[in-house]
Amino acid sequence: MMERLYWIETWGCQMNEHDSEKMAGILEGLGYQRSPNVEAADLALLNTCAIREKAEEKVYQALGRLGEAKRQRPEMIVVVAGCVSQLAGQQVRERAPMVDLVIGPRAVSRLPEHLARLEDERGIVDTTLYQDSLMRRSEPVRKMKERGKAWVTVMEGCNKTCSYCVVPATRGREESRQLDDILGEVMALAAEGYVEIEFLGQNVNAYRCPQSGAGLADLLRAAGRVEGIRRLRFTTSHPLHLRQPIIDAMAEVPEVCPALHLPVQSGSTAVLKAMRRGYSREKYLERVEQLRRAVPDIALGTDVIVGFPGESEEDFQQTLSLVREVGFDQMFSFVYSSRPGTVAGMMADSVPHERKVEQLIELQALQREIQFERHQRLVGREVEVLVEGRSRRSEAEWAGRTACNRVVNFPGEEVEAGQMLTVRVTEARPNSLRGELVRADEAAFLT
Ligand code: SAH
Ligand code: SF4
Ligand code: F3S
After folding, report:
1. Which of 42, 49, 77, 268 could pair covalently with 315 via S-S, beta carbons 3.0-4.6 A apart?
2. 203 vs 348: CA distance, rounded Å
3. pLDDT for position 1
4. Which atom belonging to ligand 1 lies closest to the Cα atom of 164?
């Protein structure tokens, strides 16, 4: 068989990165191999994100660059997948006519059929929000993540109606997988040597098994019992759906990591209302308290948007005060971006761009301080890390993650990605920790 090469570039969230793993698995099943660069590829796939305008622009820039490669090699197949495909499939074809296939996130498993059709037809657009997108998911997944850790999709789609967000339009209605199918995948991964599993879903705590009605708490308890699984995580959680059974499972199942990403978006109740988040500042703070009562050392992460339409300076101050009050361990913050087809997209984008940027800088400076302070408290402590690979800062060091999702860099010989090690924290930095190796875990995962 002639060797065919594929190239995938991915933007966006973990769900999108995991979709890329699935598509890579499908392509490898069809006999493709990973290309070292885009120029040599027989198939180039862009897996896109539409969450903010900038993310969408990047896709068109990448398509511009791909156009050059395609002129050199007209037989190259160009595929655009992901959320931009779903939102603006026809537009992608109009702006970049050289695109051969546009495929939405809920049509990922249809990739083989569409590639076969491309033999005699160009310019296929499939943005059907297939209801069975998860049921059909049995394709092999080509893991691109570090060894030792794997993602597992438990649900797709979002039934929320946050006024600023395109995700309900790009990913469709919520759909959960059967609990037994998920457990089967977890067991297979454990047998392969994976020790950490992260359950994925746009609104993961709304997970409900279509057959038994079991929820995320039941899934966590069952997955915790799978032999070989040492760490469980799940993302992304909506504060409204974080009910007591899930919090109890976090407290009681030792494998569930003491870390949670719980996007707040704003510290002002008025803005939260305009965002249609369904909770107030007080309600969010209550949830945090409830979590900390159950899991005292929990590391909390969040997302914040600044400059929402109609947001006042006072509202922004409320966000700063909430961030101070909670003391998050991690924060992703964004300048509000008006998106087509959303309710907020119809409101006047009232905060000037320059002011939004200033607010973002102020918020990020505050978060840096908080994180640094929280990291300093860990100096001297021994932490268990799962090694991800070489450190980004230095080839001589390794990088691993603690159960509470902090990055620890440390020197060491005879270390391998996928190992569980105990490291003593020697130095705190705002975004990471430094440490020294204490010992390798007895049950270390070695390949
Ligand atoms: N399902 C998740 C995350 C969705 S997108 C959740 O509900 O939390 C990831 C983050 O992007 C969001 O949490 C939000 O902070 C940000 N985001 C979404 N739409 C945005 C927009 N129009 N402008 C700026 N940031 C946005
Ligand atoms: Fe978007 Fe809200 Fe759904 Fe998250 S919960 S994906 S922010 S609509
Ligand atoms: Fe982006 Fe789609 Fe994820 S819009 S953030 S890739 S769900």
Report:
1. 268
2. 28
3. 55
4. 22
Count of helices and strands (H, E) across the chain: 12, 19
Question: How far is 34 from 37, CA to CA, in rounded Å?
Answer: 9
Fold of 4-126: Rossmann fold (3.40.50)
CB distance 162 to ligand 2 below 6 Å: yes
Q: For residue 156, is it left (φ>0), alpha (ψ between -120 and 50) or beta?
A: beta
Higher pLDDT, 2 or 90: 90
Ligand nearest the Cα of residue 237 is 1
Q: Which residue type does 163 have?
A: S
Ligand 2, atom nearest to 166 Cα: 1
Residues of the chain with CATH 2.40.50.140: 382-444
Q: What are phi and psi of 303, to 5 degrees?
A: -120, 140
Superfamily of domain 382-444: Nucleic acid-binding proteins (2.40.50.140)
**Backbone angles phi and psi of 71, in degrees to 5:** -65, -40
Query: Among residues of the chain, what percentage have pLDDT more than 70?
Result: 95
Is the CB of residue 52 below 6 angstroms from any atom belonging to ligand 2?
A: no
Query: Which candidate, 46, 45, 10, places its Cα nearest to that of 28?
Result: 45
Output the CA–CA distances (angstroms, integers) from residue 190 to 83, 147, 221, 401, in the order listed. 31, 12, 16, 19
CA–CA distances in Å: residue 263 to residues 241, 258, 305? 12, 16, 10
Does the pLDDT value for residue 270 go beyond 90? yes
Residues with Cβ within 8 Å of 261's Cβ and at least 6 positions away in sequence, in order, are 235, 236, 237, 300, 301, 302, 303, 330
At 166, the amino acid letter reads: V
**CATH fold label, 145-257:** Transcription Regulator spoIIAA (3.30.750)
Which 8-state DSSP code applies to residue 146? Answer: P
Ligand 3: does its nearest atom lie under 6 Å from the Cβ of 299?
Answer: no
The residues of the chain that CATH labels 3.40.50.12160 are 4-126
C-alpha distances out from residue 124 to 30, 70, 71, 112, Å: 19, 17, 20, 13
Q: Is the pLDDT of residue 443 over 60?
A: no
Q: Which ligand is nearest to the CA of 342?
A: 1
171 within ligand 1 shell (Cβ under 6 A): no
Stated pTM of the model: 0.94
Buried b (16+ CB within 10 A) or exposed e, 380-405: eeebbbbbbbebeeeeebbbbbbbbb
Is the Cβ atom of 277 under 6 angstroms away from ligand 2?
no
Do residues 264 and 284 touch, judged by C-beta distance below 8 A? yes
